[in-house]
Amino acid sequence: MDNMVNALPKQCQDDSDCDAGSCCQRAALGRRGLLDNGVCTELSVFGEHCYIHGSCGCAIGLTCIQDQLVLDPLHLNPVGTCGAPST
């Protein structure tokens, strides 16, 4: 039973509710978040996948860049890759 409880994502209000190396990920579309609470998410490093509509996810200094897919001409794919922000 403990393994099952530990497998569930930990809910959070802000980054201080999460362990070191994690952040409080909130799904954000537009100006409002979709949920009041977020979930603790491990930070991704350069080249790892991230969620482009999330409030965090990439390590400091990196940004989530949407992956360009051939079969997604409208760019609806929510998955990105952590990389250096474009200038």
Would you write up a description of this structure?
- With 87 residues, the protein is mainly β.
- It has a single domain (2-83), classed as Lipase, subunit A, CATH 2.10.80.
- It starts with a helix and ends with a strand.
- The longest helix is centred in the N-terminal third of the chain and has 6 residues, at 2-7.
- The strands form 3 sheets. The chain has a 3-stranded antiparallel β-sheet, with no helix packed on it. Strands 6-8-7 form a 3-stranded antiparallel β-sheet, with no helix packed on it.
- The protein is globular, with a radius of gyration of 14 Å.
- It has one helix at 2-7; strands at residues 11-12, 22-25, 28-29, 32-33, 38-42, 49-51, 63-66, 79-83.
How does the SSE layout of this entry go?
Layout (H helix, E strand, L loop, with lengths): L1 H6 L3 E2 L9 E4 L2 E2 L2 E2 L4 E5 L6 E3 L11 E4 L12 E5 L4
Antiparallel strand pairs: 1-5, 2-5, 3-4, 6-8, 7-8
Q: What is the overall shape? A: globular
Query: How helical, in percent, are the residues?
Result: under 10%
Number of domains: 1
Provide the residue-averaged pLDDT: 80
List keywords for this structure.
1 helix, 31% strand, mainly beta, three-stranded antiparallel sheet, 87 residues, single chain
Quick summary:
The protein is mainly beta and 87 residues long. It has one helix and eight strands, in the order H-E-E-E-E-E-E-E-E.
